[in-house]
Amino acid sequence: MDWELFLSPYKQAVDELKIKLRGYREQYEMSNQHSPIEFVTARVKPVASILDKARRKNIALNELHTSMQDLAGIRVMCQFVDDIPTVIELIRNRQDMRLVEERDYIAETKESGYRSYHMVVEYPVQTIVGERKILVEIQIRTLAMNFWATIEHSLNYKYEGRLPTEVRDRLQRASEAAFLLDEEMSKIKGEIQEAQKHFALKKIEDHDLKRTKR
Amino acid sequence: MDWELFLSPYKQAVDELKIKLRGYREQYEMSNQHSPIEFVTARVKPVASILDKARRKNIALNELHTSMQDLAGIRVMCQFVDDIPTVIELIRNRQDMRLVEERDYIAETKESGYRSYHMVVEYPVQTIVGERKILVEIQIRTLAMNFWATIEHSLNYKYEGRLPTEVRDRLQRASEAAFLLDEEMSKIKGEIQEAQKHFALKKIEDHDLKRTKR
Amino acid sequence: MDWELFLSPYKQAVDELKIKLRGYREQYEMSNQHSPIEFVTARVKPVASILDKARRKNIALNELHTSMQDLAGIRVMCQFVDDIPTVIELIRNRQDMRLVEERDYIAETKESGYRSYHMVVEYPVQTIVGERKILVEIQIRTLAMNFWATIEHSLNYKYEGRLPTEVRDRLQRASEAAFLLDEEMSKIKGEIQEAQKHFALKKIEDHDLKRTKR
Amino acid sequence: MDWELFLSPYKQAVDELKIKLRGYREQYEMSNQHSPIEFVTARVKPVASILDKARRKNIALNELHTSMQDLAGIRVMCQFVDDIPTVIELIRNRQDMRLVEERDYIAETKESGYRSYHMVVEYPVQTIVGERKILVEIQIRTLAMNFWATIEHSLNYKYEGRLPTEVRDRLQRASEAAFLLDEEMSKIKGEIQEAQKHFALKKIEDHDLKRTKR
Questions:
Q1: Could you say which protein family the record assigns here (chains A, B, C, D) (predicted)?
Q2: Which residues of C are catalytic?
Q3: ipTM for the assembly
Q4: Residue C166's Cα: distance from chain center in Å?
């Protein structure tokens, strides 16, 4: 199997969607509104992970295209918990993709403590041999949820999914700290939004803005 | 005053330093070690902010070059508090810049709650009219410190430095939540480092990695 | 008139199309075929040029959206003259835009000596206030045509469209040299294509390839 | 041999030098002068090519560091033949590298017809284990020389260095056409330079400029 060739439209899809979703941020800034999107990352699932997951979930390689929904992945990070519904609405309203599925792991936190909002969309890519429809998983989360998820992911890899009680407890406390930070941020949000309007108007230095524009 | 021309070597300096410091991250990953650097941002101070600060601090425009140390700014974000000394050491050991000053706002938190480690370096830029030595401020902080600092900066702009008591209190609680997250992360660090080695070895999907490579 | 806001969907359109057309190149390389696309550039027309052209062509500012077709511009550069029809076909076949107009300044060279193939397409952009349909001009040309066009454009600016006879003659000879280079390249094309397949297979160093991937 | 690790400082070197040399262009534009640099590309030699060349030139793998001067390669493209001496001077004057060798294949065209100016420099890279001095080859050439060189390189690969007479002749004619284009450009240069100053002042649309800034 020529993986580079197989994954090529997936790479094209995430490259396009990264530009498309990042564009929102500039539009909000330009109209002096708080942007619900802090930054956007994208990846195509590495071949090792694909093989691993296919084995674990018993997916035949010739069914990957329809049965593995996260070959192409986009992650949208938000400052505040209540930016998330705004991002969901933006995506639902797009005319250039079709919504396939939504999973709300914020309302229903996973047993592990994982929180994120997942959307699966079908996105058409124009290739040199015509249009190809690609499944893309979009994960929407706060910075704090993202921080925690990265760590949980690492630890699960280390322990191959069987976390010792002590690690599980530590992870739990970090999750609570992340949750608390989200809560405090929500309370302070009104103040910040007002401030950011001024901020934008004054065109003051902003490292973070630069980061997402590259 | 032709600001674009005046700031041009500063822009060149931050562009070069961004590439230089980001390079560390790849080197750590390549040797399967935890990278003390999560991501790096850079900016040249906007003209409006320069004028504002010059007025406030009574700096003449023809002395900006020597008296305003943060015209060129680099920010290095770390996952863990104890990554910070590692980054400081990396910068102290560089042969392509001269250390001018260090300020430790982590050991001595600012009254406002601000925490970060600041280094000012003198960095030579080769221009079309010869070498120019440029002051650059490098701020080193954790993700949580950075999150808080961004918010505090916005609020200070809104209230022009005179925060109402209520806002100050909310900001304080957010700062504590950020601090707590840093603490929990420190405790979990050993586990994560081990995990990240495996992580790196297995070349598993990593959005965050991709983000800093662009 | 808030130009930054007005031009914002045009900027988004060219950012998206740049990624989309560049993607073709990688697809051709991946399948070891000669890429008809060498590189792709994009720009939004600068405000000074818009005002200039609006005055010259008597276009009202509230009609820019429909009457100025090159506010958003994409340029596709090809190695060989006969790569151009291949690119035209790729664009005609896309499902994510609507072809509005084509102008063939290669079959019918402009009096000035200008050669290029122009396509105007209507491209939908998803903004924070819903879908917007944007006109985009796509210019397709060889490297030699592009080299000449850049120079002619500069000279026209200098002389405000009224070139002295001597300059016009020099420009003519440069145009002939560019045309001759295109001719020689066409003759050598078969050889090169064969060679490039080997080239790709051997995954040999290729600066030019890297250039377009950024 | 861990090639990724071995080549890592070379990759860092070319990343830094690309930013450094591209910076010149913006500086010239900012001061409304013709830029002698049109664009800059960079590459680390692919492993297959390294092995190939090591075998051909009888270089031991543990001597690559000192005996293969083009592991790290930078290419600077110029519009005009007489931009080349200006670029050479800029590089000779830099304080952040040491000139090791120069080879002038423009004054002394290679038998094959290859024209380019080569400089080999020793460039210090700061790594996580301290400073490393790296050899970098910088090739300086016009757009027309570059076009021809790309083709010659491809054809040599196809025929493994043994070009049939017919191919050699075609290549020769293409080389003459490229040379002629350079000649015509040289004659028109004065006009163009004047025009480009106006061009820059009016801040008129410039695709090519955007290309190198990414």
A1: Belongs to the RelA/SpoT family.
A2: 137
A3: 0.80
A4: 29
- Spatial separation of the C-alpha atoms in residues A188 and A203, rounded to whole Å: 22
At D118-171, the pLDDT tens digits run: 999 999 999 999 999 999 999 999 988 988 888 888 777 777 778 888 888 888
Q: pLDDT tens digits, residue range B126-151?
A: 999 999 999 999 999 998 898 888 88
For chains A and B, what is the number of CB pairs under 8 angstroms?
141
CA dist A116 and A138 (Å) reads 10
Starting at the edge strand that comes first in sequence, how are the strands of the sheet with C130-142 ordered? C39-44, C72-78, C130-142, C117-127, C98-104
Question: What residues contact D174, with CB distance under 8 A and at least 6 apart?
Answer: C181, C184, C185, C187, C188, D148, D151
The full length of chain A comes to 214
Q: Which of B16, B21, B97, B128 to mutate to test the interface with D (most CBs of D within 10 A)?
A: B128
Burial of A70 (0-12, 13-18, 19+ CB in 10 A): buried
In chain B, the domains with their CATH numbers are 3-213 (3.30.460.10)
* Catalytic member of B16, B26, B89, B137: B137
Looking at residue A172, what is its pLDDT? 84
Do B122 and B97 touch, CB atoms closer than 8 A?
yes
Please give the residue that has the higher pLDDT: either D203 or D160.
D160
Cβ count near C38 (within 10 Å): 21
Pick from A158, C108, D214, A146: which is nearest to B190 by CA? A158
* Contacting partners of chain C (3+ CB pairs under 8 A): A, D
Instruction: Please say whether the beta carbons of A35 and C128 come within 8 A.
Output: no
C-alpha C8/C-alpha A111 separation (Å) is 43
d(CA A85, CA D83): 56
Nearest chain D residue to B10 by CA: give it.
Answer: D23
Closest to A185 (Cβ–Cβ): which among B43, B75, B174?
B174
Q: Burial code of A120-152, b = ≥16 C-beta within 10 A, e = fewer?
A: bbebbbbbbeeebebbbbbbbbbbbbbbbbbbb
Residue of C212 and B163 predicted with greater confidence: B163
* Contact (CB, 8 A) for A203 and B48: yes
Cβ-based neighbours of B25, under 8 Å, separated by 6 or more: B35, B37, B38, B39, B40, B212
pLDDT, mean of each 10-residue run, chain A (214 residues): 92 97 93 89 94 94 95 94 96 98 93 90 97 97 88 79 83 85 82 63 46 38
- For the cut 80, the answer to whether the pLDDT of residue C212 exceeds it is no
Average pLDDT for B5-11: 95
| Chain D interface test: which of B7, B14, B27 (most D C-beta within 10 Å) | B27
Within 8 A by CB and 6+ apart from B190, the residues are none
Contact B157 A41 (CB under 8 A): no
